Amino acid sequence: MSFTFVSGALALDFAGTVKHRRLDRVDLLVAPADLARWTVEAGLLTTAPPADDAGLARAVELREAIYRSATAALHGAPPAPGDRDLINESAADAPPVPRLAPTSDGPDTAERAGDLASALAAVARSAVDLLGGPSAAALKECEAPTCTRVYLDTSRRRSRRWCDMRECGNRAKAAAFRARHRTPTH
């Protein structure tokens, strides 16, 4: 399954690796290999790091702490102390290290090296910056009936309603169109 990066913040995209949390929950991180692939697709690391069940369990704990903290912030509440502690603890690890690497046929390329803990540190630092800064006021939850993705509404009027116009927004607009154009039955 493919990952989506539409939330506007790395930490929220990580929390979004669970779809439909309230109904028909779909977890996109079911195996350590899924987590390793996410770190590359998110641009955190150039090469997938070794990941095991313990690393996956730690990542899932962090993901859930971020989600709970973001939903608390939606309602003007602080994170639960345990969630705050877990985010801060994860953020204390060293983040991935960027470096310029030569290529055989052109300009250098940027690479990011590190292990799973460094990738999770980058995610946790994103959560710290988001939840502890002015962007927390722009948090919203998608209005699609089954979607539970939290995202940053950076639209000019703060009027964005869906996490992603291509999926949730398109479905909602198509349903509204069908409802308006439904022929009445007698």
UniProtKB/TrEMBL annotation:
SUPFAM superfamilies assigned to the protein according to its UniProt record, in alphabetical order: Jann2411-like (SSF160904)
Zinc finger CGNR domain span: 139-181
Matching Pfam families: ABATE, zf-CGNR
UniProt region (Disordered), positions on chain: 74-111
Origin superkingdom: Bacteria
Protein name: CGNR zinc finger domain-containing protein
Lineage: Bacteria, Bacillati, Actinomycetota, Actinomycetes, Streptosporangiales
